[in-house]
Give the backbone structure.
Amino acid sequence: MGKRKYYQPETETMPVEEIKKLQSEKLVKQVQHVYEHVPYYKKLMDEKGVKPEDIQGIEDLYKLPFVSKSDLRDTYPYGLLGVDLSECVRIHSTSGTTGKRVIAYYTQNDLDLWSDCCARALVAAGVDKEDVVQVSYGYGLFTGGSGLHDGSHKVGSLTVPMSSGNTDRQMTFMQDLNVTCLCCTPSYAAYIAECFKEKGISPDRLTLKCGIFGAEPWTNEMRKTIEKGLGIKAYDIYGLTEISGPGVSFECSAQTGMHINEDHFLAEIIDPETGEVLPEGEKGELVFTCLDKEAFPLIRYRTRDICMLEREQCSCGRTFIKMKKPTGRSDDMMIIKGVNVFPRQIEAVLLKENYSENYQIEVSREGTTDIFDIYVELLPDQFDDTVKSISEREKKLKGAIKAMLGIVPNVHLVAPKTIARSEGKAVRVIDKRKLSD
Ligand code: ADP
Ligand code: ZN
């Protein structure tokens, strides 16, 4: 029997017109429901002068008010529940990367829908019943662990619920159980690859075939590093707790963007300044509407992630619209010396110039001047270089970063293993200016 290509073929390859029809039907119902059951939404809609009957389909979506993280904080902890609390069976909470944690609720139905989304992602990466899936995202409040765990169960793969950390044990299980698929953050995957290399275990001695990496922005350069280091194909997966967790969108064999699970999540790109909806193909802030979630039915939720949508015929046969790799969150963006800087741009330069993926950016201020430092770890073979050649390297790297950003950082090449490794989301930026606010 051949491998299955899709987890839910009828849905994943549905003609675009049908997807839109389905979305319209679900949207009308969802809006009616939240208007009647979530007082906070009723208030927002009343303030904007929009009634449920004004929403006849997805073409009316723009009429609805946005919801943002601050609304979630204002209504903490129960404010936006769409069902009675007794119908909820689980909570998850954001990692708090950018401030106070937010709590999201799930009914059993919501959990089923979410694990289907993760199962779609696994099957798209070539995972099937015979596979052994090691889930090395953190378990607990974070959505990464349980999302991929439940998805792997749905596929019927043997699931190894490792959670993050204890890297030696990760490596032992991977080898002893012939693990074929690794799920974790890209920075942790890169670290695991580094540890295998240190132990002299080459990728061809591993049974790993693929990995599903997400929860933080990563570049295509980083993808190459991981693919080479572990001898696998590395697939991207995107999601956020507020909308459910990983699996809101996922990459297929084409590896040119992530298919959004459009039967459940309706995506828009808006201008983050004006809130105006942008046409397909333009870059802006990603906004999601949950079409059939029950416990936490967010409508027009502003993710603050900057990205682009594209509906194209995909070689994998899926018809769902694709989102390009997010370039980062609008709140990850630093303004240094008046220039917009995303950590991801720096990562791309470093990997292109053959440095390690271990770096940290530090921004501080002296008087009114921004001080921009980048600490980059040398690879072990670069570390043997003479002082002279290291300062030449620093100069060259400065030039490459200047060419990308237009501003010149202080580059510090540091010894291998000086920068802390991450088992979850990597901390790339220390902005001392914000701390002193
Ligand atoms: P927190 O906002 O506290 O980090 P989450 O754990 O829910 O909480 O993280 C969701 C966020 O992680 C997304 O909004 C996005 O910024 C980032 N993210 C998740 N997956 C990806 C991915 N594949 N590429 C880029 N960013 C991602
Ligand atoms: Zn595809």
